[in-house]
Write a structure and sequence with these properties.
Radius of gyration: 48 Å
Number of strands: 8
Membrane topology: Multi-pass membrane protein
Structural class: alpha+beta
Protein name: DUF3772 domain-containing protein
Low-confidence stretches: 1-38, 515-542, 791-810
Strand content: 5-15%
GO molecular function, one term: mechanosensitive monoatomic ion channel activity
Distance between the termini: 227 Å
Helix content: 55-70%
Organism: Lelliottia wanjuensis
Number of domains: 5
GO cellular component, one term: plasma membrane
Strand order of the largest sheet: 4-3-2-1-5
Mean pLDDT: 75
Largest sheet: 5 strands, antiparallel
Number of helices: 26
Length: 810
Amino acid sequence: MQKMLRMPLLLALLSCLMMTPFFSQAEDTPSQTEAEQPVKVNVGTALPALQKRLDTLKQQVSAVKTDKKFTALNDDALKLAEDANKLAVVLAPQLTQIQAQLDVLGPAPAPGTVTETAQVVGQRKQLNNSKTLLTTQIEQVKAIAVNAQNLSSQIYGLRRDALKTQIALNTGSILGEKFWSPLISPNEKDTQRFDEFGSQVSDAWHQAWDEDWYFGSGFYLLLALVIGLFGRKALDRPMNWILPRWLPQGRFRRSFLACFTTLSTTVTLGISMQLICYIFTRLPDTSRLVMDFADQLVELTWFSAIIAGLGIALLSNSHPSWRLPGIADPLAKTLASFPILLAASIFIFGIIEQLNGLVGSSIDATLFGNGLSALLVALNCLIAPIRVNRMRRKMRAEGEQTEARSTMAGLIHLVISLTAFVILLALLIGYIPLARFVTFELLWIGLVVSCLYLLIHFVVDLCEAVFSPTTQSGKILQSTLSVNERHLSLASTLFSALGKTTLLLMALVALLNGTFGTTTPLELVSKIADIWGGKGLESMNIIPAHAVNAVLCLVVGWYILRSSRRWLDHEFLPKTTMDRGLRASLVTLFTNVGYVLLIMLTLSMLGIEWNRLAWIVSALSVGIGFGLQEIVKNFISGLILLTERPVKVGDLVSISGVEGDIRRINVRATEIQLSDKSTVIVPNSQLISQNVRNATMGNAQGVATIALTFPLDIDPEQVRNLLLEAYGLHESILEAPAPSVSFKELGPNGIVLSVTGYVNSPRMVSGTRSDLLYEILKMLRAAGISLSQTQTMVLEQPHRVTVEDEAKGQ
């Protein structure tokens, strides 16, 4: 019995011992829960603060242009992303705790099964609302963190792009360790980005050679290699056979061959690269990054191919006799590798720059690529002139004749050398953005100028070939339109001028609205803008980029206007039937209108609006009322003279006792050349307001009139016939109206006869009259007729009346 009583006691004691750890653990649980309580954060205040910081950063980024501010904003964006991630971490345990409480309560029972108390229902509803709110807040916080990261990436890209325009930023010399750091110790992020891109390219490559795609990939690759390596040579052979047989003899053959060589080189290389890229872009699983890289690679190939094609065409080592510029054969052979090396350099380092932009590489990697590309281009541009000068000295030493260098060729040579020197100097002192800017500006301007040179020669030679009377097309036009050779020559000059003008305008637009690597207008960022300050300039929106565009527009416009004026004055207008005065008036009027338009266009390029010039007009109005009144009056009078043409260049005029020929009508005054070759400057307003005698207006004829006095005993009929005979024998006297003799006067001194004859121009009167006097005098002496004797006045001493005389008279 006692044993039976002891067994429950032992079991109870054992149970107590076994439950002791659980009780101790249960006692410890509250303390641990208190230790793991989440940090309480006022989300209602922290979340709007983060959103406000993000909005502020976005506003600041849109107005920042300096590298220093970009760096500060990038740090702020990264700090914002870090703070948002910390807030998300803090909010996560709160969401876990609420979910745990909901799990304890369990899901809401189905209607009609179990009835819960109002307290449990309210608690579950409150927890669900808290869970929804907290989930939304966490999502907002994560969105802010993601937006901050994206903003940092955008700032990084903007900062990298800003390096292209921040030419005043010193980033370190190419001789420094920092410049070579991407090659010696590359950035981990850059390595990761390039590895990811390389893996995408590798995946596309392996996919291209899968069973479903390998046949097409092999075909496109083989076709691309054949076109790229042998395409241009295959096109040159039939063209060499066609040119001498189909095209007329003349300069058009060489310009056509140069254009064809450029076009064939560009097209074959461009199509070859497009076929290679199509191997990857046609695949369905090719990444967006690889496709973008392929598109940019094709564009870069076209640009590099144009440079190589232009160099090969202009040097024309395959056809030296058809070379367009005047370059000696040894010099052309010396420069044969230059365009190919330049195009290859641009292609290789252009790929590096495009990769940096696509993968979002670091600033150091971007500067490294920009610096190497600028360095290689500068070395090419500097070595080529040195090799040319060395070869030219060698040719002179050997007695060989070099080409006659023009001033323009020497200027181009000097500009390229100086530009290359500036690029190298900028790289050495640490201005890599400046070196990149100058490099690609040099490439773009050189490309545009080379294309302009080639196309202008092509257009001029084409017009001469089409309208030449010796070619088949010229003969067809001459017989069809019934025109003479002068009209064909005039049409050739006109159409070639229209073509050159169109090409010049296109070149100007290309220079102003694009540079290699950018599609926006020329953008220059300089610290000079900070100095400009002031409300007046700010209201006119004058910025350095616009100033450079305006200067470029002014220089190119002035050159176009000057060339057009020379073309009108010496080539086009002399082939027309206009008289010299009308031609001079048209040239002057064209020049004045051209200068006005050029000034207006330059002001427009500066960004100056006409309504901003009200204060200038107000200031000028006072000056016009005083000192500028005469200038404005003479200017308006000059425009009236050029439009109404009461007098024109070449007219013989007489004004205020001054008589001479008009040589030039300027904006303010007119130049009148006298008979002694001296020049009188007459204000234009006097030619409008005063009486002016125009002796040559309306094709006026000159009148040669001679009045002679004969004795009373002559035979008037004989003298009349003799005078008419003298006038009729002179070659300058016109037959119609016929010469005439009129009886002017009959007096005690003799008979006055006046003989009149007409000549073609008033300028012939003086010389013709002198010749006639010589001839008439000879004829009178031969006929024994003398002129009336000169009357002599005899002055006698008056008689002096004396007193004796008076007395005698009486």
